[in-house]
Design a protein that fits this description.
Elements: H1 2-22, H2 28-45, H3 47-62, H4 64-74, H5 78-92, H6 101-123, H7 132-140, E1 142-143, E2 146-147, H8 159-186, H9 196-216, H10 221-244, H11 251-280, H12 297-303, H13 306-309
Antiparallel strand pairs: 1-2
């Protein structure tokens, strides 16, 4: 964990130097905004992995009908079913574990931040490049009169800490549930809403927020700030992807098709109006037709071909 302590502390201390110029360096606002900055930096660095996660998750959803066929065919042979399923994923160029990469990589970072703040709260000692003086400052920092190093369990009757901790825990619950619900209701085809994969998604929809609620009461308020901001980032990022690049055959894809058709219709209306105006423009006058001059019989005879003259 030592490399992660240095990585997190470098970003945290660097952000604190910036926010410390605006607010009092010892204030909770400076340290809370430093944690928010740390969250944004980490999530921005994970965007490439998030793109892979979206692609892997999309491919997994689209392959569910074929997975169901394999389950019907090899349901009696678990080993063969596993082999054929992995072969299907390999042929399709997707990896079922890629959808877990951002979460798996965030967990060590989250634990490192938790240990960093917890160590500062209990021992007032720094880790990484966070000095003992800065750790002590972080320990005493207050946001709205509440120490951000405190936990709900360690409030000891301090209602301010309990209220802020519960508020952040509820925000975590709402954002986690909304993000998962948004994915299932808008960006999953009907075929993917049936079978074991769909059941797992439905279970996670209710289990994950419950796990976060139970664990959240033991986390320092600073860690809860990190987690809540990270959830808000995930929710916004997913909303953007679902709106602009939905999975084919999903409600989100139908909504996007309607929006595109509406835009095309509006654009077509402008073109049609322009065409009407052009059609109504006055036409140039037609050239006057001149009648040929009358010729005499002698002139007509002279102008005839030689064969006709004979």
């Amino acid at each position: 964990m030592t490399p992660l302590y240095y990585l997190i502390s470098i970003v945290l201390v660097g952000a604190h130097k910036v926010w410390g110029q605006i607010f009092d360096p010892s204030s909770g606002a400076a340290w809370a905004l430093s944690i928010v900055t740390l969250t944004v930096v980490i999530r921005a660095a994970l965007i490439p992995l998030f793109v892979k996660q979206i692609k892997a998750s999309r491919n997994m959803q689209l392959l569910q009908p074929q997975v169901k066929e394999l389950q019907k065919k090899y349901g009696h042979d678990r080993e063969k079913l596993t082999q054929e399923t992995m072969k299907l994923y390999k042929d399709a160029g997707t990896n079922p574990f890629a959808s877990c990469l951002p979460i798996l990589l965030q967990m060590p970072i989250f634990l490192s931040l938790f240990r960093l703040l917890d160590h500062a709260a209990k021992n007032q000692q720094g880790k990484g490049i966070l000095t003992d003086a800065q750790a002590t400052q972080l320990y005493h920092a207050k946001l709205f009169g509440v120490q951000i190093s405190k936990t709900f369990n360690g409030a000891h009757g301090d209602h301010g800490i309990q209220i802020m901790a519960l508020t952040l825990v509820i925000a975590m619950l709402v954002t986690t549930f909304t993000t998962q619900r948004q994915l299932m209701s808008k960006n999953m085809p009907k075929s993917a809403m049936e079978g074991p994969y769909a059941q797992q998604q439905k279970i996670l929809l209710y289990v994950l927020p419950l796990v976060f609620a139970i664990g959240g009461v033991a986390f320092p308020i600073g860690v809860l700030i990190y987690w809540t901001v990270s959830n808000l980032w995930t929710m916004g990022q997913q909303f953007y992807v679902i709106r602009n690049n939905p999975v084919p055959g999903t409600p989100a894809a139908e909504a996007k098709a309607k929006r595109d058709a509406h835009k095309a219709a509006r654009h077509g209306g402008v073109v049609a109006t322009t065409t009407v105006v052009e059609e109504q423009a006055p036409e140039a006058p037609a050239p006057t037709r001149q009648q040929p001059k009358k010729q005499t019989r002698e002139q007509r005879k002279k102008n005839r071909p030689q064969g006709e003259q004979k």
